[in-house]
Amino acid sequence: MRKKEFCAAFLMLFGSSFAASAAVTNVSLAVADWEKTNLVFNGVDFQGPATVANTASGHLLGTKTTATGGSNYSLGLHSITAYNLQDATLRYNWRLNGQGGYSGIYTGLDTGDGHVHLINNFDPNLPSVGYMTTDHSWAGSEIIPSNGWLWTEVTFSANHYDFTVSKTGYGNTDFLHGSKTIASTTWDALVAVHPFFQLGDNYVAGAYFEVADLSITTQDVPPGPSVPEPVSLALLGVGLAGLGAVRRRRDAAS
Fold first, then answer.
1. Sign of the C-alpha dihedral computed for residues 108, 111, 112 and 116 taken in this order
2. Which of 245, 103, 118 is nearest to 189 (CA)?
3. Using CA atoms, how far apart are residues 214 and 222, in angstroms rounded to an integer?
4. Mean pLDDT of all residues in 127-145
5. Is residue 169 scored above 80 in pLDDT?
6. N or C: which end of the chain has fewer CB within 10 A?
7. Are 155 and 171 in contact (CB under 8 A)?
8. Bigger pLDDT: 190 or 71?
9. In this structure, are residues 83 and 25 in contact, taking their beta carbons and an 8 Å threshold?
């Protein structure tokens, strides 16, 4: 075995151990993996009449079955499972259909109790209400196209997050994009959070939100060198022995 061949074999056997890797978690959109997060105020449950279902394509669909004006009357859903968003990228493809009228939605992350929204929407000019709305704006809410698909992508770091909300695809900057700082308490809480969607303040029956895709990608982290398998060690031993034999023959010839 020549020196060049030996080096190639070594890289094939052990080079991949030092390559960066990323893990993608596709969050289940099955109804059974989500739960309602009712808004309770002074002992009154403001959960509006609503249905939750999966479409034929497996999308998550939340529908308000009556017109319930007023943001308190809502349909809130969050994932039952908590996820670690530290140093990770969150992506979700979704739409809101106001059925031709005004309707509002929150999307983001909560802490699991259904009442504390850790992050509401991703908007460079977040209004006090934290809404995105169809038809028209209220209190500075961002207007989104009714029944138009949006792609939200957010990457979290220790003291800030970068985000885009696009009408054409993940990471595109055709609609909303920016960066926001986060407190250390928010960063600490991101270790176990629940994606959520909350639809309310709808003035037409049948308003709904639909989620087609939801995933979490960890940032690339180079793993430590792995322990070679016995077969790999044996092949390496053969290569070393061959290289040694070549050298001895060269020494004898000289």
1. negative
2. 118
3. 25
4. 84
5. yes
6. C
7. no
8. 190
9. yes
